[in-house]
Amino acid sequence: MKQGVLPFEYEEEKKDTGITGLAGLPLYLDLARIVCLVKSIQKHLKIREGTQGWTDAQMVIALILLNLAGGDCVEDLRLLESDEGFCEILRKIESHGLARKIRRALERRWRKEQQRCVPSPSAAFRYLKGFHDAEQEKLREQSEVKAFIPASNEHLKGFVNVNKDLFAILNTIRVQKTATLDMDATLIETCKMNALYSYKSFKAYHPLNTWWDEHKMIIHTEFRDGNVPAGYEQLRVFKEALDCLPDNVEEVRLRSDTAGYQHELLKYCEMGENERFGRIEFAIGCNVSKSFKIAVAQVPDREWHPLYKTVDGIRFKTKTEWAEVCFVPNELCHNKNAPEYRYIAKRQLIEEQQTLPGMEEPDLPLDFPTMQIEQRKYKVFGIVTNIKESQKNGEQVINWLHGRCGKSEEAHSVMKKDLAGGKLPSWDFGANAAWWWIMILTLNLNAIMKQLAFEPSMERARMKRVRFSIINIPGRIIKRSRNLFIRLSKGHPSYRLFLDIRERLMMFNELLASPG
Predict the structure, then answer these.
(1) What is the pLDDT of residues 126-140, one digit of tens each?
(2) How many angstroms separate the CA atoms of 59 and 156, rounded?
(3) Are the CB atoms for 195 and 226 separated by under 8 Å?
(4) CB-based burial label for 421 (10 Å; 0-12, 13-18, 19+)
(5) Residue 36 backbone phi and psi in degrees, to 5
(6) How remote is the C-alpha of 305 from its chain's centroid?
(7) What are phi and psi of 322, to 5 degrees?
(8) Do residues 319 and 306 make contact, with C-beta atoms less than 8 angstroms apart?
(9) pLDDT (tens digit per residue) in 8-42
(10) Residues 370, 364: contact at Cβ < 8 Å?
(11) Which of 464, 472, 475, 503 has a Cα-to-Cα distance from 203 of 20 to 30 A?
(12) Between β-strands 475-480 and 376-385, what pairing exists: parallel, antiparallel or unpaired?
């Protein structure tokens, strides 16, 4: 039968050909071996321990590969399994370097000969369900607290330690003594029956993420319901993130939006209550309350300074002005021992534009507080910091805080659009939390690949480019002398790129293996 109007037709091969459409994906398995990801999963995740069938490492690695390949739901595991060439590689890699005793133990996990190389969707669903704690859902029903955060079971806590191990290894290769932590939450819109409504009036989940700016990776995340405010229990989450930092980190700095404007968090940083890091510098957006607006209005015009911005080494003046503000919040007014903070205000003049009748501009959204000063209307923003004026003036503090703008939001876009974080698989909270954590591990593994193995021009590449130029490359799998070869088409530009990546990975593997 005729297939279409153009002069070509589709046919199916008569036998297995060893072709793969994911010739670049094994590079990530190379990296996973170097950073000991499989060993870490085996150490910290114990759902499949003592059972038959798939191991924890096989389950998690399969879902990580699914994220990297572009799949966004559990059913897409069928597409991985259908790639006969990639499955051949996966079989070889799983047994590589294992002692005979361990290989035999893996074979005995199956009553019959193992047929699949990738877990089936139903097996993956059952595995994710193991991270759900039904007792926490009962506590939710009994609790009178609206913003209820289910406690993680022991299996879900294992992801924290796996991620911690990744950072410990990375920070021995690319040492960062300072950790600038950006805390920000993101909404994942969903239609799941058990999901709760967010402040934006749609059903969602609302994970709070902590971004390590120097490494461009997520050091900690907490999966939450949509009705939980972004700043809810932020101090506790911040402490947990600090515990995840590698041992060779010496200094921590914090940046956050107005969700982090909580006096217990500010005090914890200023008073040096953390035994390991002591005083922690911060810059956090503050609420533009009525009393803050009064303090801003009292600042003379001569004390307002233009805010400059540097782009590609060129410094230019913006339409925004800044000034130091003499302000003490009501929460600290009656406490003699309360710490003192610097408050900085930004203002931007709202220019009046003449419009035709019926064509008036809509009012500004509530996200932009406004105030009237001498017949002029301004958008106003506030910042609180404990950085001394002798260290950084107001403009430097503002620009440092602005350094978080766009980066964590870009990471959220990658999580939900480039990876599988935007499509959650289950009604069960714990299963979705595990799916989110596996996506975070994928995000961080890709970030490590960019830092260690990609050429500099690829360090800021989104997954779309990575898949097009590295992962989704066709190749033929050839067996010869008990070895596997992935053969690319002659003259393919990715061939040289693959060799360079593997050469760099080998170099870092030798660096990690060397004593001291």
Answers:
(1) 999 999 999 998 888
(2) 14
(3) yes
(4) buried
(5) 60, 40
(6) 36
(7) -135, 160
(8) no
(9) 777 776 766 688 999 999 999 999 999 999 999 99
(10) yes
(11) 464
(12) unpaired
